[in-house]
Amino acid sequence: MRRTFSILLRNPLSLLGLILVSAVVLSAVFADFIAPFPLHRGAVVDFANFNKPPEWPYIFGTDLVGRDLFSRILYAYRISLILGVVVLAIAVPIGVAIGLFAGYLGGWTEYVLMRITDVFLSIPPLVLAMSMMGLLEPTLTNGMIAVTAMWWPWYTRLVYNLARSEKEEGYVLAAEVIGASKLHVMFREILPNCVPSILTKMTLDLGFVILIASSLSFLGLGVQPPTPDLGSMVADGAKYLPDSWWLTVFPGLAILVAVFGFNLIGDALREILGAEQ
Amino acid sequence: MNTLRIRDLTLGFKGWSGTVEVLHGISLHIGRGERVALVGESGSGKSVTARIVLGLLQSLRSTRLSGLVEFEGRDLSKLSERERHALRGTKMSMIFQDPTSSLNPVYPILTQFHEVLRRADPAINLTGARARAEKALADVSITDPSRALDSYPFQLSGGMNQRVMIAMALANDPSLLIADEPGTALDVTVQAQTLRLMREQVERHGTSVLFISHNLGVVREFADRVYVIYKGRIAEQGPTAALFEDPRHPYTRALLDAVPRITGDGIPEIEDASDAYFAPTEVHEGYGEPEGAA
Amino acid sequence: MTHPLLSLRAVSKTFHSGGREVKAVDNVSFDVAEGECLAVVGESGSGKSTIANMILGIYPQTLGEIAFKGAALPGRRDLAHRRAIQLVQQNPLSSLNPRRTIGASLRLALDVHGIGEKAGRAERTGQLLEEVGLPADFRTRPPAALSGGQRQRVAIARALACQSELVVLDEPTSALDVLVQARVLKLLADLRKSRGLTYLFITHDLSVVRNIADRVAVFEKGRLVEIGPTASVFEAPTHAYTRRLISAVPVVTVAEAALRQRLTEDADAHA
Questions:
Q1: 3-state secondary structure (DSSP) of residue C179
Q2: Shortest CB distance from A171 goes to which of C56, C82, C94?
Q3: CA B208/CA A212 separation, integer angstroms
């Protein structure tokens, strides 16, 4: 763990990733303390200061009802991160379990589970989420359900392939010959060897979940106003380009920073954990 | 002139936690047409020595190399990377442990043979290559060379692939052949045939051989002279018969004692590590002097 | 009447691959007596690994019967059968889970079979390590911290943990250096004596066989071609394939070379 960290710090790109991600996470966690106008996360109207370009104390400018964009971006990060963490917290265990069962047990279990997975994989993710959001109410909870539904199959694919190759390793045979249960072999023997790859993918995915959630909100299918969301902020601001450029540029940059940061770290992890195996 | 002369060769790899010394000053030589074995356990430094001779480690940034490696009188460290590259596959060639994985599975044997021949003769065309390859394969007792040439490596047996490797390695008449654990991946009966064949072929071509192996029995059957290497140091060197009949170094003795005998003398009690194994090099008279006087 | 510990009666195994039938093991019968070490010898494609896998219950035989202490072994093994027959694999690099400690790998056997009091099992893993000549505190280490020979000792300790009666040794020393091999062979021989174990020793290395086995079974292309006491098979092999196999072994002493020479001449005389 310490070694992983020291390698992360030595490479300039992964160091940049670490800085970006820390900034995103810290601003989400401490939004209440950092944000100059914490109340602006909600339905506040301040027509005296509406549509202001970046100037003190509104460092990112204000929106069309006079709310501080900087404060709203901090709170939007909080929502995006919660969304990302919750989606992965549900999708990863489901995906991993299905992948382990299919990969290790083989036969009919594998056939049925993997065909179901393929069906989900064959539908473009955004389309799947959009149709689900169309059917359900466009709320944060439903947004999470929609994104989760399209996320687990990727973990199934990943773990399925890993499990199939780990199955051939001598330690699996050893556990089987001792008489260990199938559950033990899957979750105590094979799973620990899949953890590095799963962790790497999760880090990369945190960025992508934020991006997808923003895309849904951009289309008006995600988080609803007045809750701040990066995607809907970009969408709303886009109507006033190029005059009120700050309405789109800053939320857009915020998405970029988060996605880019998680990707850099994910890539670094892939290298470090891959080399450790 | 010796085909190969190595003097006081040291090698270290620089890593995160300082430099790891792999070779602690080894010296050896191979006369023209001589078959010399470098025998040792895993981690002894025998394979890196082969890679240095092939000029593969000189340009790596993490290596610390000192000492002399002279091939046909030319100091390898004074050559450019390009010149070293030009030697490989022409004047020096190599045979690896696992023949099937060292041939490219997506090309037929002929294509790969053509590549090899082109290293020495860039103008050679496929027809010319075919003629020479057929002759070379016939030399290693492949009964239908034409069919073998049109096959892919996976269509041939391990033993056949090993013969193809031998034929390819000798196709450009190299002066030095480096054989790294040849035949270890094969069955004993096939391994025995392969070694006999390789011996015949290098004798005919007058090729010098650096034979890298951990298997003392195989070394005894193949080599004229033996260097025993232990943890980056030469423990003992001498003509094969002398060294096997009268092992003088504690490590050589342990190594020889450890080999199970088909005459059934039981399993001996042996130390797998001992300070005695670091004793100074034992040299048998005759051909084995460090300077290679004879 | 006393039964042999293990007996194979007319056992065959056919694999289907790409519409073709491959007979990996063809009508093989032999016994393994309690306390003996029987070597199963052959080259690649001899069927020796298939025999090991059937005995271990990794897959069932196509025809014939495999009996343990006189009772036929079912295709699907229960825990008692698993406990009685254990395995030491060839490659100690892959046979231990890289992400679990040595102690956890050893403890699995104790937990699965409920051997000893729960509280004492951690300590028991330490004792097992000491029995194979390793320090007890190795149990907290990952396999990566051990050398090849040390890992193979752990694999042997794992087979002992089950208190099994028959140990299938599948090329247990062929991935090891020769000095380490000698030490591991010595350990195996000592353990057999002290614990009254029975070994089925699968290998291609005839010089190892000569020094560890009581009897040898020679296989060629799925068939058992010769079986007998080790000394007599090596001194006077009756089958041409056995002679060929022994004459191909690379040797290091003059006495061995003489034996090989004699066998080669015998072979020529027969031919």
A1: helix
A2: C94
A3: 65
CA distance A213 to A208: 8
- When CB atoms are compared, the residue of B192, B218, B259 closest to C207 is B259
Cβ atoms of residues C67 and C73 within 8 Å:
yes
For residue A127, being part of any structural domain is answered with yes
Residue B72 burial (CB count, 10 A): 16
Using a CB–CB cutoff of 8 Å, tell me whether A236 touches chain C. no
Closest CB from C79, C91, C99 relative to A179: C79
Contact C88/A at CB under 8 A: no
pLDDT-derived band of residue B294, with 50, 70 and 90 as boundaries?
very low
pLDDT in tens, C113-122: 999 888 899 9
Cα–Cα distance, B1 to B33 (Å, whole number): 11
Phi and psi dihedrals of C168, rounded to 5?
-90, 115
User: Which chain C residues are within 8 Å of B265, Cβ to Cβ?
Assistant: 211
Closest CA to C162 of C96, C103, C107, C104: C107
Domain harbouring A67, CATH code: 1.10.3720.10
Instruction: Examine residue B270 and state whether it is found in any structural domain, yes or no.
Output: yes
Q: Mean pLDDT throughout A150-169?
A: 93
ipTM at complex level: 0.90
Q: Answer whether residue B6 is part of any domain.
A: yes
Fold of C6-235: Rossmann fold (3.40.50)
pTM of the model: 0.87
| E strand map for C89-143 | none
Range of the domain at B267: 1-32+61-76+229-294
Among B294, B289, B288, B281, which residue's Cα sits nearest to residue B239?
B288
Whether A183 and chain C come into contact, CB under 8 Å, resolves to no
Spell out the domain ranges in chain C. 6-235, 236-271
Q: What is the pLDDT of residues B9-22, one digit of tens each?
A: 999 998 777 788 99
**Mean of pLDDT values over B169-184:** 90
Pairing of the two strands C85-88 and B233-239: unpaired
